[in-house]
Amino acid sequence: MSNPRPATDPRVEADARRVQADTSLDALRPLGRRRLVVLACLFLIAIAVGAAWGGSAIWTLVALAPAIAGVWLVRRVVRLMADLPDELVDERVRTVRNQRYVEAYRLLSAVMVAVLLVVYIGADAPRIDWVLEARHVHAMFWLVMLMSFALPSMLLAWSEREV
Amino acid sequence: MTPPSGRNPTEPVHNRLPVLRAERNLSRQDLADAVGVHVQTIGYLERGEYNPTLALALRMAAYFDLPVEALFSLEPFAPMSHAIYKD
Known about the structure:
With 163 residues, chain A is mostly helical. Chain A contains six helices and no strands. Chain A has helices at residues 10-20, 31-54, 57-77, 91-123, 125-128, 134-159.
């Protein structure tokens, strides 16, 4: 039976099929282990943001590498479900990821509000004896950047029974 | 977090997919391939954890050569044995 869909670049489609059939990370795909991966990723992001907040460029770079690896791992554990083109995933996956994108948007909005609040307070620094420095902006940049890449996949990894 | 997998908890859609698959000796993979969805989606449908789109419901009805209301209903289906032996 035909299932019409828009044309996709054959290379993209081949890559998507390869990712969807990937079994190399199956040991991490049961729900409990996926949740551990999510918690580990959040921990690594917190370490990286903390290192940037501390102001050491070396420690920031050292901490960013595992945080980026954690983001990569979370996305691969859910087989890039959050990122594949619409026409390459079935309707249930589209529905599920749309729900998770809405939740990710709400959570990321909360993170952004928190970041803006810090900047707002920093702008009033002379009165509270705290100065907003470049290192703080770097930390907030990495927080928003890493979370925006990871959050939809984290929510899928946390909630889906099967991936 | 919202319920997983596209289910509308206020209006469940009941289906006869397991019975129809068993009658025709089809695996979930066979049915998934025939209607163009992932095999996991058939499992979610059969467990009532996902409500199909109209397009998918119609594709399934066409595949089984039955009216769509024979596959899906807002009311629970009576058991087959009841339908056969009630008279």
